[in-house]
UniProtKB/TrEMBL annotation:
InterPro entries: Cyt_trans-like, NadD/NMNAT, Rossmann-like_a/b/a_fold. Keywords: ATP-binding, NAD, Nucleotide-binding, Nucleotidyltransferase, Pyridine nucleotide biosynthesis, Transferase. Residues 11-190 form the Cytidyltransferase-like domain. GO terms for molecular function: ATP binding; nicotinate-nucleotide adenylyltransferase activity. Pfam families: CTP_transf_like. The keyword NAD applies. Catalyzes the reversible adenylation of nicotinate mononucleotide (NaMN) to nicotinic acid adenine dinucleotide (NaAD). CDD domains: NMNAT. This is Probable nicotinate-nucleotide adenylyltransferase. The keyword Heme does not apply. One of its GO terms (biological process) is NAD+ biosynthetic process. Pathway: Cofactor biosynthesis; NAD(+) biosynthesis; deamido-NAD(+) from nicotinate D-ribonucleotide: step 1/1.
């Protein structure tokens, strides 16, 4: 028997190599807008044929834990990291659906860049059967799809009232009015590689851990 549906639950997947304020700030704002009590960070297992993260899975997880240690909004789910094989988001969502039941409102948070390339994700057309998509703005990325069929898909599913996200288990896309934070993990790795300070781009505890572990230094 699945548990009785709770409020809207939200997951936020990423490589987090490293986690930074571009991940945290927009999601905090989104949580306020939508009324999320909890956001579960889901660090990815990166498949061997993709460019590998510079930090190990254990280091990426430690950085996530340090980033959220004083922030009760966030928790972390290590199920993808613990697996021997990479998992597709759709598979993880299907697994969660089994655990939570068909009625539980469930959302997956992505940045605007991920929305624009969502049709490259494995089984992307089934994602909205499993969850809602909550989208954070990201500077430098268009607010519309170029492809008319993708723009139509967005318009078919987009809702502007967050209430519906808690009243239905899945199927809607909500574009948050979130702050534009111009930070990427790539930029942080590059700056650290050049020996430049970037302590304003990520939580202090994460920055100290990076230094202590000599991460991202060339
Ligand atoms: P990289 O530069 O290594 O590609 P990244 O900074 O884009 O990394 P990821 O861990 O790949 O970070 O991103 C996880 C999720 O966070 C994705 O959905 C991405 O769209 C979103 N995201 C990352 N940075 C930002 C940002 N500055 N603003 C909004 N969303 C972001």
């Amino acid at each position: 028997m699945n548990a009785k549906p709770q409020g809207l639950q939200a997951l936020f997947g990423g490589t987090f190599d490293p986690i930074h304020y571009g991940h945290l700030r927009p999601v905090e704002a989104l949580a306020k807008q939508v009324g999320l009590q909890k956001v579960i960070l889901l660090p990815n297992h990166v498949p061997p044929h993709r460019p590998q993260p510079e930090a190990s899975p254990a280091q990426r997880l430690e950085m996530v834990k340090l980033a959220i240690q004083d922030n009760p909004l966030f928790s972390v789910d290590t199920r993808e990291l613990r697996r021997d094989t990479p998992s597709f988001t759709l598979e993880t969502l299907s697994e969660l659906r089994q655990e939570l039941g068909e009625q539980q409102p469930l959302a997956f948070i992505i940045g605007q860049d991920s929305l624009l390339s969502i049709n490259t994700w494995h089984g992307w057309t089934q994602l909205l059967d499993k969850c809602h998509l909550l989208v954070c703005a990201r500077p430098g990325y268009a607010t519309h799809f170029d492809a008319p069929d993708m723009q139509q898909w967005l318009q078919q599913h987009q809702v502007t009232e967050p209430q519906i996200l808690s009243e239905t288990p899945s199927g809607s896309i909500f574009i948050g009015d979130t702050p534009l934070v111009n930070i990427s993990a790539t930029e942080i790795r590059e700056q650290l590689g050049l020996g430049q300070a970037c302590d304003d781009l990520l939580p202090r505890a994460v920055y100290h851990y990076i230094q202590q572990q000599n991460l991202y230094q060339k």
